[in-house]
Prior knowledge:
By secondary structure, this protein is an alpha+beta fold. The protein folds into 5 domains: 23-181, Topoisomerase II, domain 5 (Alpha-Beta Complex), CATH 3.90.199.10; 225-308, Gyrase A, domain 2, CATH 3.30.1360.40; 346-462; 485-656, no CATH class; 670-824, DNA gyrase/topoisomerase IV, subunit A, C-terminal (Neuraminidase), CATH 2.120.10. The strands form 14 sheets. Strands 25, 26, 28, 31 and 32 form a 5-stranded mixed sheet that branches. Strands 40, 41, 43, 46 and 47 form a 5-stranded mixed sheet that branches. Strands 14-9-8-17 form a 4-stranded mixed sheet. Helix 3 (68-75) crosses helix 4 (83-95), helix 7 crosses helix 10 and helix 10 (325-366) runs antiparallel to helix 13.
Amino acid sequence: MSNINGSPDESLHSTEHVDEKYKDWFLDYASYVILERAVPGVEDGLKPVQRRIMHAMKEMDDGRFNKVANVIGQTMQYHPHGDASISDAIVNLGQKDLLIETQGNWGDVRTGDDAAAARYIEARLSKFALEVAFNAKTTQWQLSYDGRKNEPLFLPMKFPLLLAQGAEGIAVGLSTKILPHNFQELIDASIKHLRGKKFELYPDFITGGMIDVAGYNDGRRGGKVRVRAHIEEKDKKTLLIKDVPYGVTTTGLMESIVKANDNGKIRIKKVVDNTAKDVEIEVQLAPGISPDITIDALYAFTDCEVSISPNVCVIVEDKPRFIGASDLLRYATDYTKELLKKELEIKLAELEEKWHYTSLEKIFFEKGIYKELEQKHKDWEAVLAAIDKGFDPYKKQLKRAIAREDILKLTEKPVRRIYRLDINELAEQIKGIDADIKQVKHDLANLVDFTISYYEGLLKKYGKGRERKTEIKTFDTIQVQQVAIANTKLYVNKADGFIGTSLKKDEFVADCSDLDNIIIFRRDGKMLVTKVADKTFVGKDIIHVDIFRKGDERMTYNMVYVDAKTGYSLAKRFNVTGITRDKEYDLTKGEKNSKVHYFSANPNGEAEVVSVRLSPNCAAKKKEFDFYFETIPIKGRSSMGNVVTKYPIRSVKFKEKGVSTLSGIKIWYDDTVGRLNTEQRGLFVGSFEGEDKILVFYKNGTYELTNYELTNRYESNDAVYIEKFNPERIVTAIYYDADKKQFNVKRFKIETQTLNNKFLFIKEGADNYLELVTTQAEPVVLVKTGKKRDPQEEEIALHETIEVTGWRTVGNKIAGDDFISAELLTEDEEAEPEEDGNLQGELF
């Protein structure tokens, strides 16, 4: 084949491999996406589209609002992409309420509502943005994509913007997710860094809510935070969700609640969105459903709790780097310091130049050098030379040599009659410039202090109203099996060995959820745990089946079995706290043909009495006797047990109900999460059994009696005192009466017995609150009044001075509005977990 000239076309004989082309093209594409679209730069914390939007808005800025459509058009001169991507980026910046002031409907990140069209909404740069993000003198410039204009390589950002706004982007082979942080805390951390002190940074979201930062890991890869919505109990039938987790909308949250209800994880009657200025989602509970368990279930099965994995990835020197949030703040702070240094150096050069010219001007007029302009010289160059010569006696007073440009500038000034006042004015200007130069040099010499002062100025001017919105808390771990609603029924066919939810013609076992595990015991002494399913074969001749509760140390199994090898019958008592699912465990000695004579399950370690009847043909003299399970200790499931008899057993039958061989349930209160527990976390409350109750006092002057279920929730910020309830104890309380502006004290007994109802025991009033409460028998308090610097102190034995009255009484005045504090001086003997275990006088 030839070209038009008839010569062979060499290009047709060259070979290019597609895989090599693809390799180069894909690498170029990946680099472009990482550097130019998805990942922000470390210098100013902005992606290219955001940087170009800010630059375009600065060009347009005249102090008034501009239509966002116009801003988009201006930005398209620098951003080589469609208007939709620019519009989305502007709305995203505007919703963060930091760099852009907005006007019109900009949508709502809480509800997911979109912003109005760009032609309807308006924007302008905020005063904060104008102060921290722009300075043409310190900006590095580059040509725009079409070469017509200059655009900033980076904005000279004097603030850790990236941490304040957060960022998210997905590139080729990597992604970034930087969570937003609190404005005030970032400035405080920057100041601490400049002073060489340690600091901590944790996310803060504009949507509010609560956050557990235990696994934040400084925002690095592998870290994780849990974010929850605040859920309040309006009444026993209604819950109110007061905010949404970061990244979740009210619509999405409601959909997740409805889905959980449809799947049987929770049971609600209705969910209503009452969101207006503030978020409020009303969850109406089905009859008989516990609010506390439902709150846990909402966190476990809906978007009321979400887990977020941060991943701080930024562009540093044209390369993506994974760093921590603290490293990012240090870089931003040091970068700010360098920018301030550049600004000071530029300002110093400008001041020195101004000083030089003003000094020249003063000498020019004061010494009459300007008269050279009136002389008739041969040419203009001679005039300039004469002026330069006229300065010779004064050149040592100047800081640099006189340039030709300086003389030309002087000659441009109109020669007029010079008054003495003009010279004095120039002298004053020089003095002012000298003072400014001195200050700038001082600031350069003390650059760290100058930077700290700069940050303090930002905090003072722009920090108001930017307090932390997301509450930092420690979350409790919710066991989903414990809070899942029993949404199905479990059945068993003991003879054939099947269990499941579909065996509706067979024996009913219990209500359960599809998250539960089932424990099965067979006549051959085998045990296994398996998950709830429609129908599962677990082995023939089942003797017991129930819901398995992992870690339950109180459920005790009593068993009598015969060992096939020796013929001996043995009795054992054991717990099953942890197992491997779907693995068979042998509860006998392991001999084939061993079998179970008797089996019982006891939730509180009850030890019954059984009647043992031996085979009539055996050699034993006594062929029937009673066996007491209380005579053997509770051990692990692998224990062999104690010998009951060496003779063959005909039957073992239940004879008499036994009492529990376990002490009461020892319960602690963890005030960091507001939950009861048996893992010895927090304050020991007491040993509970039967009808025992818990007494809780709250800041608002109410008390409440509850049971000791571990699913109970207590708002740790409101609960000030908790103990095992003893109706004979006398409560002593000091509270503030806002109406009379005084503090009252009262002593009373708890007379109510109703559970889960809060009773107000102080005087009713919106601003009244509980100052101190105790159930000590003989409380003595130290009351401080007067001035804080020189208070008056008085010890008062309240049990001697205050009579015991009804719980509704107002009480007696103990101090006026000069009250400072009341401190409990006496202590009851500390309760040990092995004994009664009440918390006496514990305020938290």
